[in-house]
Design brief:
Blueprint (H helix, E strand, L loop, with lengths): L33 E4 L13 E4 L5 E2 L3 H6 L2
Antiparallel strand pairs: 1-2, 2-3
Bound molecules: zinc ion (ZN).
Length: 72
């Protein structure tokens, strides 16, 4: 009984750039796509201080902890 395992050695093709995460939809109007507003609250440099900004209803939202990690 042979246990032959095909191991694919990754070549240069494995360096596919990961696509940027898709921003969440606006929780207020549910029509707009949220943008990162990095100009807001930059009092503490080095920290993640940005807000979501909806291009449709112009509202700002606090990003969640997960958003801070994924969209940093
Ligand atoms: Zn909105």
């Amino acid at each position: 009984m042979s246990t032959r395992i095909d191991v694919r050695i990754p070549d240069h093709n494995d360096r596919v750039p990961t696509p940027p995460p898709i921003p969440p939809a606006c929780p207020n109007c549910r029509q707009g796509v949220l943008w990162k507003d990095t100009r807001a609250d930059q009092k503490d440099s080095g920290k993640n201080h940005w807000r979501w900004w909806c291009g449709n209803c112009q509202k700002r939202f606090r990003p969640t902890e997960e958003h801070l990690r994924r969209f940093a």
